[in-house]
Amino acid sequence: MSRTLTRIARSLLPPLAVDLVRGLVRRLSSVRAPEWEYVPSGWRTNDPRIKGWNVQNVLDTQRAKWPHFLESVRGTGPLGLSHEALKSYEHDYAVHNTYMTYAYVLALAARKKDRISLLDWGGGIGHYYVISRVLLADVEIEYHCKDLRILCQGGRELLPEANFHESEEECFGRTYDLVLASSSLHYSEDWRQIVRRLASATHSYLYITRLPIVHQAPSFVVVQRPYQHGYETEYLGWFLNRQEFLAHLNTLQMELLREFLIQERPYVFKAPEQGEYRGFLFRQRQEG
Question: What is the domain class of 34-284 according to CATH?
């Protein structure tokens, strides 16, 4: 198609105009599908491009960004650089909101303690361990991360003092002061079952953040194409109806303590409703 357009332009237009057409064709051919797109068929889709998160490119990309991430949390500057950022100066208010609300949650979980245990569900190669140590330097963090094997292997290499679990049974074999799920819950098809297990794993606080929610439409599924962040893969995820999500947590006897605004609003092509990311801090409901 692009060769045909260029050939037609060459036969009809002067050389300068042909060069302009050729440049336009190159730009158009490089345009990919939307980063976020509504999937009417839900989790039943069988698109071969949807390879998920368990691919070598994901680990390679996160390793490549690791030095920039470490540099961004040193010193006294704002904690506003995402570990997903391709450049070391892309400060983002949504990232700053995420880290500062996490600081509040972490301080609450560590109140009157010298040491706390943390389960980071879907924590990748351990970015939240680094952030936790920066935010609460005087408290010992016993960090546990549950993720896919390839990311756990990378995490063990970068953070040998942390604990990485490939098995759900291994990480759910105990309880924690704080259970964290940041931008991870919605990537599980059976999110209700995962929430149930996360709630049972905490003897104190459960913090689910960077969760895409909608307020009117029923929960729906999207495909995410994170090529602009360096990841050569695609994967499915939920945009959860807020009331549906909170109602389920209520059945698990989890009390909502605070809701947080994140300021992430990805545009989802053809979605029944545009959503936003929020954070939710829960505690086991006290009897009596």
Answer: alpha beta
